[in-house]
Structure formats: structure tokens, C-alpha cells
Amino acid sequence: MPSGRGEKSGYTGQKQLPATLLTHRHPQGGGRHTVPRVKVKLFAIYYEAAGTRELEVDLPEGATVLDLAKLLEEKFPKLRGELVEDGRISEEARVLINGRNIEWLEKEKTKLHDGDVVAFFPPAAGG
């Protein structure tokens, strides 16, 4: 519902993904199956390649950060080779889950849970 401040109902100003990426249904009975939904944040060249800064993704139970990275590369062809390299998270990519670097967790095998926020950062340069 609009707040009266020039907002449009249901419009976030961000590019939306196809419903197939955001919705998984339980194969039996047709009801909604509870699956982990994570928020993904993309920065710098990753944002430019995907055309969106944030999105929400429903994942299968037990999905890892590597599974998510592969899904993102599949859905956004310009990201291919940026997030995953040789079946692992690229050494160039920095990935944080709820603000914690995956290097201090279980790296690309870190399982994702409902409500997690996953941020992908490209390498930074400068001085």
C-alpha cells in the first residue's frame, strides 16, 4: 500500500527475478513448501553484471553458498566465471554471510538458512 510519499504499491525500484528463481513448490499436494529464503547483495562489478543490487532467492534445504553462487551464475550469464572457479568459490570473490566471511566458516560448503543475508564483493584495489 502506498505511504503517500510518492511510492508505488509493490514497486521497489529494483529489477525483479523470474518467479521460477524465487519460488519452489512441494511436488506432492501442491502446497507451499517451506524452503530457506536468503537475501543476496551484489556489489561493484557483480551488481553491474547482474543488473540488480539485491534479490531474494529460495533455495533447496541444505543448500550451500557454492550452490547459491552457481545458481546466480546460471541466472545471470555475465556473472559466469566471476563467482565460481574450478568448482569452488573464486579466490577473487569475497563472500559474507550475515556479516561473517565464509573463510572463517566452512568456506563454500557453508550451509545457508532461512533469513541469511549473503553479500558478494569483488576484489578491491587502491591505496
Automatic annotation (TrEMBL):
Pfam families: ThiS. Transmembrane segments: none annotated. InterPro entries: Beta-grasp_dom_sf, MoaD_arc-typ, Mopterin_synth/thiamin_S_b, SAMP1_3, Sulfur_Carrier/Prot_Modifier, ThiS/MoaD-like. Gene3D superfamilies: 3.10.20.30. It comes from the Archaea. PANTHER family: SULFUR CARRIER PROTEIN CYSO, SULFUR CARRIER PROTEIN SLR0821-RELATED. This is Molybdopterin synthase sulfur carrier subunit. It comes from Pyrodictium delaneyi. The lineage of its organism: Archaea, Thermoproteota, Thermoprotei, Desulfurococcales, Pyrodictiaceae.
